From TrEMBL:
It holds the Pfam family Peptidase_M43. GO terms for biological process: proteolysis. Residues 217-247 are annotated as: Disordered. The lineage of its organism: Eukaryota, Fungi, Dikarya, Ascomycota, Pezizomycotina. PANTHER family: METALLOPROTEASE MEP1 (AFU_ORTHOLOGUE AFUA_1G07730)-RELATED, PTHR47466. This is Peptidase M43 pregnancy-associated plasma-A domain-containing protein. Gene3D superfamilies: Collagenase (Catalytic Domain) (3.40.390.10). Residues 219-232 have a biased composition (Polar residues). It comes from Pseudovirgaria hyperparasitica. The keyword Hydrolase applies. Residues 104-188 form the Peptidase M43 pregnancy-associated plasma-A domain.
Amino acid sequence: MNERFNPHGIYFLLASMPQYYVGTSYASVASAQDWPAKIERKGSEAALNMLFVRELEHMGTAYGACMPLGSQIADRLADICIIKTGTLPHKDGIVNYSGGLIAVHEIGHWFGLLHVFGTGDPSSCTRDADFISDTPLQWAATRGCPDKEPSLCKKSGPDNLHNYMNYVDDRCLQGEGFTELQAVRMRRMWKNYRKTHLTAEEKGFIKNGQGVTDLMPMDSTTTLPGPSPNSTERPESHDYEHEHMNGESLTEPLREHTLSALLLVAAGVFVVF
């Protein structure tokens, strides 16, 4: 997880050793609401809980699931990422999806990201599916790993072939994975909706945890990925001042997002169970 999220200013710490449950009653879940009766959730709403199971019953071909950000904050017991064990790196894993990147996709949802593609209707080319301007419009998911970048919405540019929030095979996800504005969205959603729930104990763990300095030095010389705090660089045709999601305006200039990442690392590193 850190390998995939660190380049975007997001850092994870393991707060406790994983717990293992053996038996058929723990081997599968029918939905996100099914697991609380079986497994005790740990930590505040700021803590990422992950449950790995053999099967996801009654969920079609899904390989993982995270509840949408917002609804689960009120129902904290359902605030979990459920991942099929077959998606983890293993010689007997699910074909094309055993690189561990399904978990990255689902954690993206935990941070508030939506799919980069629309509903499967070509008319979706007129609507921004994820409300983020630096992910090209795409009316359907990309499957497999095409040799050439498809472009379902011609005027918007090539599809999001190498984006974690698409449906491509794991082997196709070897680039940046998240766009710059997806990273801004994740950090913003963490700051606004999860960081405020950190308990005193969790803050103490973050402050004193040995993993913090292992991940990144905490001093004034720290170099973060992306533009410097004083940078005014902006890719052409992207409106950073008017990003929105469900009516929420994102007005923070691009030059501020790197400084925001430093604050996250210093005071809001994610507590992971």
